[in-house]
Amino acid sequence: MSERPVTELAALPHLRARVRRFLAEEQARAPYRPAIDAWLTSASAEFSRALGSQGWIGMTWPKEYGGGECSAFERLAVVEELLTAGAPVAAHWFAERQIGPGILKNGTERQKRAFIPEIVAGRLFFAVGMSEPGSGSDLASVRTRAERVPGGWRINGAKVWSSGAHRAHYMLTLCRSAVSEDRHAGLSQFLVPLDAPGVQVRPIRSLDGEAEFCEVVFDDVLVDDDALLGAEGDGWKQVTGELALERNGAERYVSLYLETMMAARLARPTRRDHAYLGETAAAMWSVRALSLRTLAEENRPQARRELDAALVKDVGTVFEQRQVERARRLLAGRVPGEEDRALLRSAVEHAPSITLRGGTTEVLRTIIWSGLDTGGGRA
Ligand SMILES: Cc1cc2nc3c(=O)[nH]c(=O)nc-3n(C[C@H](O)[C@H](O)[C@H](O)COP(=O)(O)OP(=O)(O)OC[C@H]3O[C@@H](n4cnc5c(N)ncnc54)[C@H](O)[C@@H]3O)c2cc1C
To answer: Whose CA, among 185, 256, 283, 352, lies 20 to 30 Å from 277?
Structure first.
């Protein structure tokens, strides 16, 4: 097992500088407003294509399919710079973070050749189809059905809270493909085109007035055999692997753009500010170190990766929620423009959802405790 130093990131100043130059050029070419939670809320297909043309989507993936075969640390440096800038990365986010890796791990050669180069180019966007009405935390209870028909599958059911489904081309959809006593068996994943006959994508408006997630209804949707990702019945194993990628990224400690705002607005911190800033720095660096550990140890067993991801998401999202409160206190009366005030408001409105999406804190803590308890997660 190769242990790489956490400080390795500090050795990537040139790459970080390139990303910052690119962001400045994009701002000049097609101005965007920095966003809170940019990976969920701020999408620009044009920005994703521009990022793809730099080779910054699928950076770690095999060259054979258009990837860059870079290290996970190089990818992380790019991702941290993009999130810190509040850049409009939401269009390609899920495709890059978890769907592409899922296709590379479980897909057929045909699927890899069809999907991966398009994702890398920033042209193909995905939604994650796990949650359903009544099946969120209890994901194994999904009721969306996939039935075998000649030449393919017929899908019926509904997904909910599907982020970005209104701009995605495909949804990786978790379905029940066989009835089984064991709830974790009989689940399969399908790559479903969202423009297929019988699919309805209905945006849901949230508290802040935005409609960033959707309900997606499947009514006798026919997909061919090639839409099945991985082996039939392997859906649970695949989904938990994807959730580990979802829970363990930089978006768990640097997604809110608030640190960037604090750095800009508190160039001369008062004595009172120091305690808040010190608390921010300590918490953020601890979560980051935890997240980097998984990257550093490439051969970590899957069970251990899942446990680590649950730890990062639990500690990271609690940090981010507190960060909103810290920023509100620190920046109150000190943010000069309406734009900054709107960002702070947006952070406050988003705060409750931070510990829900990707698995709630209560559920993560159950995973953490049972993982430690059963030894499945021990290194
Ligand atoms: C902003 C946002 C974006 C999202 N994007 C997506 C997406 O793109 N794709 C997708 O599939 N889903 C998405 N989700 C859904 C998200 O994964 C679910 O909201 C989450 O898993 C919780 O499920 P639920 O909403 O059904 O709540 P429930 O499962 O009904 O939970 C309600 C409450 O009960 C608690 N609870 C439930 N079970 C237990 C237990 N066993 N022990 C202790 N407490 C428990 C929970 O912690 C929670 O507080 C998104 C959610 C949000 C908020």
So the answer is: 352
